[in-house]
Amino acid sequence: MVLAVKQQSILARINGVCAAALVADNVNDLLEGALNDILELMRATRGSIFLLDAGDKLVLQVSRGLKTDEQMLLVKRMGEGIVGHVAQLKMPVLVDDIGRDKRFGDLKPRRSYRSPSFICAPLLIKDRLIGVINISDKTTHQKFNKNELKVLDFLSSQIALNFERLMLNSQLGRTNQEAARLKKEVVLHERLASLGKLAGGIAHEFNNPLDGVMRYTNLSLEHLDEDNEVVREYLLEARQGLRRMANIVKSLLACARNTSTAGLVDVNNCVEQCLKELRGDFAHKNITVTRRLQEGLAPLDDRGLERVVSNIIRNAADAIDREGTIAILTAMEGDMVKIQVSDSGKGIPKQNIEKIFEPFFTTKGMEEGCGLGLTIVSEIVRLYDGKIEIESAPSKGTVFTVFLPAGHS
């Protein structure tokens, strides 16, 4: 009971930090307020926030617990010290004892430090570095732990999002339409960034138990007597639910990932592979698939193209209740690779077209989807610096057209 109350208190304080950051109306208030709140939450006395400047240097913006002469020296290069190390890797770091940590060589804390332990996290918008926050000197003189690092990493994402919000707000005012677009983009980035932070924790907490339950469910099915059809049906239903849970976790992770994988991918091979995997769905609904795939298309970086093609084709199949057609086309248009998927399904109402890429937006039943498929498509296309065009109307079907730059890096 005491532990539960303590956890509730900590969660309430974390929520308070997020709420305070959300209402800040200028960058300085945001950074100073967030740093003070985090130090109080962590029961620490020293902290600093650095921002990345145009010359790829990390410049101290706000600090607490540092002497004036120390503040004057705090401009860090990428890779220099703990702050530079975190900025270069774009990963949070926990240091038990700076004097013994081989990652930082002979770097030692100043004599005025009470403890040699540090936690440090990057301020990121997706994969773009904005700055770094560094926390040290717990009032108890104890070392920081992994849970505190996770909390700092989560709060750093909130600081970065609100920093971006304030920077965008400073550019608003050109037109009401532009202001609305930027505001919507910030909200979407906030949702996706929070989703990304949660995804890793969900995968860690759910995957092992899910694997265990799935394994024992399969074993139970294998050892079940043939005449016990009722129990078999119950177990099959349970397994279907477990698979759905596993797919949701995979979808969350897909939203969180935003980096390229090694190698190139052939667009037409990708289409054929996706059609092969979805063949059963087409047969079940009596869907006819036609394709016109241009030969010799430029290969693309493997940034998740298969998920783009698979999710769009699956979405087309879901839009067809029974009997219909799906047409797939690939072609070169200038320096862009064009991938087009047309279906004869029920179409998308005008008021929903702008919402379909939002996380968890879905018109399907709970048993059919979780509303992340097109969100994943949107994020991966953004990674390619590509674009998506949609033509749709109720009862007239839908055409998804994706354009991706043909050059690869």
Task: List its traits.
Heat Shock Protein 90, 3 domains, 21% strand, 13 strands, Beta-Lactamase, alpha+beta, 6-stranded antiparallel β-sheet, disordered N terminus
Summarize the structure.
The protein is an alpha+beta fold.
State the strand order across the main sheet.
3-2-1-6-5-4
* Fold-level CATH name of the largest domain: Beta-Lactamase
Helix and strand content put the structural class at alpha+beta
Which shape, going by the Cα principal axes?
globular
Beta-strand portion reads 15-25%
- Our measurement of the CA-to-CA distance between the termini, rounded to an integer number of angstroms, reads 55 Å
Task: Report the mean per-residue pLDDT as an integer.
Answer: 79
By CATH, the architecture of the largest domain is named 2-Layer Sandwich
Low-confidence stretches: 1-6
Q: Give the strand tally.
A: 13
Assigned CATH superfamily of the largest domain: GAF domain
Helix content: 40-55%
Rg measurement, Å? 25 Å
Q: Count the domains.
A: 3
- Characterize the main sheet: 6 strands, antiparallel
- H/E series: HHEEHEHEEEHHHEHHEEHEEHHEE
Number of helical runs? 12
Q: In the CATH hierarchy, what is the class of the largest domain? A: Alpha Beta
